Amino acid sequence: MKKIETFSGAFITTFHAIFTDKAAISVMLGAVVLYSFFYPLGYQEQVAANQPIYIVDHDRSALSRELIRDIQSLRAVKVQALVIDADEAVQAVRAMKIQGYVEIPADFEQSIWRGTPADIALFANGASLGQASSVLASLASAISGFAQEIAVRQAAFTGAGIRPPFELVQRPLFNTREGYGSFLVTGVAQLIIQQTLLIGLAVLAGTRRELYGRIFLTHKQIMGISAAAMSIGSVNMLYYLGFMFWYQDYPQHGSLGSVLTGSVLFISAVVAFGLFITSFFRTRERAFQLILFTALPLFFLANLSWPEVSSPTWLVWLAKIIPSTAGINMMVKITQYGAPLCAAKNEIINLLVLIFVYGGLGWWRYHFYKITRQ
Fold first, then answer.
1. Do strands 100-104 and 51-57 pair parallel, antiparallel, or not at all (unpaired)?
2. Is residue 300, in this structure, part of any structural domain at all?
3. In the β-sheet with 77-83, what is the strand arrangement from edge to edge?
4. pLDDT tens-digit profile of 258-312?
5. How far apart are CA 213 and CA 207, in angstroms?
6. Co-location of 145 and 264 in the same domain
7. Count of structural domains, the chain
8. Which one of 128, 158, 188 terminates a domain?
9. What predicted TM-score, i.e. pTM, was given to this entire model?
10. Residue 172: inside a domain
């Protein structure tokens, strides 16, 4: 018994409990590996491709056919049909057969050669915002390119310069593939690690409480258990930031020192948070019910997909009490933007505060609470 009450004894006992408990090992290690392959699978294409559309051609001229050929060469859309009735395209959108349509006016060619604006209407299905955005952006790009080409022809016909005065070249700085997976999965990775680590700790705590009643730990036991949990969490972080990001071909711009420092801070905050909240779980099952249910709200609270300035102030401050909020934003800055640690000083301060606050509360729940209750 004395051996268990030492730091090394608690450290080894925690690992033994994890690897002998099917639920704990499945969540803390198995689920992490499974999610690293399963979750990015839905975003393998990175950008929406071959989205079905119609083209409503009221003009049926040489120029309109040339524009249609440009649209057909796009990767993001696939022209399902050329129609002359806009109502047919509208009905197809309502029936979810297509994601949008392009409407070319009847006087398209005449307007262009007269030098007057020719209005081309673009419509997309707003029920799927991501796909609608991709359809509209790709169509707008193709039409803009076509308009520039026509402007060059007109300039050459009138004797003006045959090249435009400037050319716009767009190059993304960080998300070089401009993919949804590179944006989303790199942030969700931290949330997956947090939730699996919390569930594993809660399962272990719930099991011990079912067997022995309320848990009381010595200082060395708390340190040993925390060190074991941090070891598991750190390995998971390095697996995601190292192997998984490389395997999925996600951008990686952070230095090794910044990544290691940020990972240790985040995992320390998660373990401190976990020790505190798991002290309230009386059964193993309660962990799965609560922590899995809160995963999606926690991601939105991190304001990665929604600007912080557009969120209510009280909600922004509420989000700061969860390690994943600061952890996601800090690691995205470090790994995706290649920012130094000083650029994430607000998130680092947030995590340090959580480490001390939750660490102190967890220590009190597992050790000092016993003394105050005597």
1. parallel
2. yes
3. 77-83, 51-57, 100-104, 121-124
4. 999 999 999 999 999 998 988 887 777 776 777 777 877 888 888 877 778 788 8
5. 9
6. no
7. 2
8. 158
9. 0.70
10. no
